[in-house]
Amino acid sequence: MSTLTTTPPGDATQRVTVDTGVLDRRLATHVSLGQTVAQTMTLAWRATMKMRRNFEQLFDVTIQPLLFTAMFAYIFGGAISGSVKDYLPVIIPGLIGQTVLTACIATGVQLREDMDKGVFDRFKVLPIARIAPLAGPMVADLVRYAIASTLTFGTGIAMGYRPGGGVLGVFGAILLAIVTGWSLAWIFTWFGTVGKTAQGVQGISLMVMFPLTFLSNAFVPTATMPGWLRAFADVNPVSHVISAIRELANHGQVTAEVGWAVLGCAVVVAIFAPLSVRSFNRKM
Amino acid sequence: MHTNDTLAVHAQGLVKTFGDQRAVDGIDLEVRRGEVFGVLGPNGAGKTTTLKMLATLLPIDGGRAEVFGHDVSREGHVIRQLLGVTGQYASVDENLTATENLLLFGRLQGLSRPESKRRAATLLEQFDLTEAANKPISAFSGGMRRRLDLAASLITRPPLIFLDEPTTGLDPRTRGQMWDTIRELVDEGCTVLLTTQYLDEADQLADRIAVIDRGVKVAEGTSDELKSSVGRSSLTVHLAERDDLVLAAATARGLVGEEPVPSPEARRLSVPLERSEQAVDVLVALREKGIGIESLTVQKPSLDEVFLALTGHTADSDTDDSASMEAAS
Ligand SMILES: Nc1ncnc2c1ncn2[C@@H]1O[C@H](COP(=O)(O)OP(=O)(O)OP(=O)(O)O)[C@@H](O)[C@H]1O
Ligand SMILES: [Mg+2]
Predict the structure, then answer these.
(1) b/e map of A7-44 (b: 16 or more CB within 10 Å)?
(2) Which residues in chain B have their CB less than 8 angstroms from residue A14's CB?
(3) Cβ neighbour number for residue A48 with a 10 Å cutoff
(4) Which parts of the chain span the membrane according to its record (chain A) (predicted)?
(5) Domains defined for chain B, CATH in brackets
(6) What range defines the domain where residue A155 resides?
(7) How many interchain CB pairs under 8 A, A with B?
(8) Beta carbons of B81 and A28 less than 8 Å apart
(9) pTM here?
(10) What residues of chain B lie within 8 A of the CB of A49, using their CB?
(11) Given Cys at both, which of A48, A127, B31, B320 links B80, Cβ 3.0 to 4.6 Å?
(12) What percent of chain B stands above pLDDT 70?
């Protein structure tokens, strides 16, 4: 009726043949790296389609930077830097740090929502890399970080900000912002994989996001803070990222801050990526 | 366990426990290649849990299972390449159109872009969804969703298909279409393992049926075997004249060898049948005696009767009652 041939163990593929003609294919015993990348890109495509269809998902990287930039500049400009124009070089990089972090939160919350949906049940039963449904959206979210940082710069420039670093400096700053977004997103992705509900993930994410952004040099120089607060703000990786963005955008300089920022991001990825992958795999 | 070439699914003593509840309690299944195998059971019987274990979606707590000779627990990736699974609830992406969904699943499984497109178009055609191809799923009816869900399981032409309650919630016409589709799959050489709550559906589709209840297999066989072991059909006739009732009862008794049950107020007579064909004999005999008939029905044993006979309790009562579960086990 049918034949079944299995090649000796150690061979990556096996052959199963059934006379019906339906099944005569090579069966892999594992997913190759190339396939993993292809599957991740396919799922990134799915995530971008979702973004395009649900435009409100992009509010946090479109409307919010526009509003916040104008608001913060006009409200705090005079008090902190003497004038709005003088405050822009301080606040624009600060806001980039803040919006990118906000965008990261959505990565975790949406992953949680996604995992509750029916389509995830199908991902689980497909012969795909178990990590692809997590990695795909993270690739797509690079677009969100790019939009957020570009729009914030754009709004600043429209308000009179003239970055001293020139095109190259701004480009470098945007790149760093994207790298930061992707790295810090692992923290929130981990919340997404361990949280029970999307709302819970959102709550805990905000609790982490607020101290990280406000207890940093994003909006005010740390010199004005009390000693203990300043100690935290100075080691906060977000501070280093914002300093690095400032130096890139305002002076076109790649300073030690860029190194610290990248190192900080690397540490975050080294801790939270394995944690996320492990708890995600448990649910896949 | 020795590999059996003729079996698509071979499960022995499957067990799944949730806390201290044994949702699946030692189920054996043997699904032959090219057949439709039905798992019949009431709510909470453990149908979905069994299917999920076989589909690598839930770890197997006890016993073991092979799919085409491959161990389900150890060779998950191989198993997933052999399976198409349509779960009890639709598992397609709400944010994508029907075509995009099929492209997504095709691409994920390594089909090239043109190949995925071709397969998607063929499947949409086959499932009567061509017109809705570019509509978002949120605009789909339940039946359309169900069909798309099945289509999504078939992109890579898997040799084994699991269908968890494929027609629950469908109207009779759509249900019939789904049955036709499942028959076509089998004609193409697929093996189908499906679950259902309807005896009728198992009867129509399945070559062999396992009845499970409270995690235990209580019967197995072809639909005819089950029905004859379980209960009998009956013929109910409404007579034109009440006066004919006695004569009609005597005539029927002579043919089926058992006492029909009359209900004179309604001029109704219920005749137990050993085999459904006996209904014809009874009707012909009544006509020959000149007894007028207003209407008639032939009833098969219902799922409730099947359950009553097989398990000693009805299908929908006390399935969630753990006290009576203790008593039953
Ligand atoms: N994840 C779970 N956690 C705890 N108990 C569960 C879980 N999944 C199923 N059960 C229990 O296991 C039993 C069998 O459930 P299962 O879903 O397999 O039934 P079913 O036969 O598919 O029923 P239905 O016809 O309602 O779909 C039920 O009593 C259910 O409450
Ligand atoms: Mg079920």
Answers:
(1) eeeeeeebebebebebbebebbbebeeebbebbbbbbb
(2) 78
(3) 16
(4) 58-81, 87-109, 167-191, 203-220, 258-277
(5) 7-228+307-328 (3.40.50.300), 232-300 (3.30.70.920)
(6) 33-283
(7) 114
(8) yes
(9) 0.79
(10) 95-96, 100
(11) A127
(12) 89
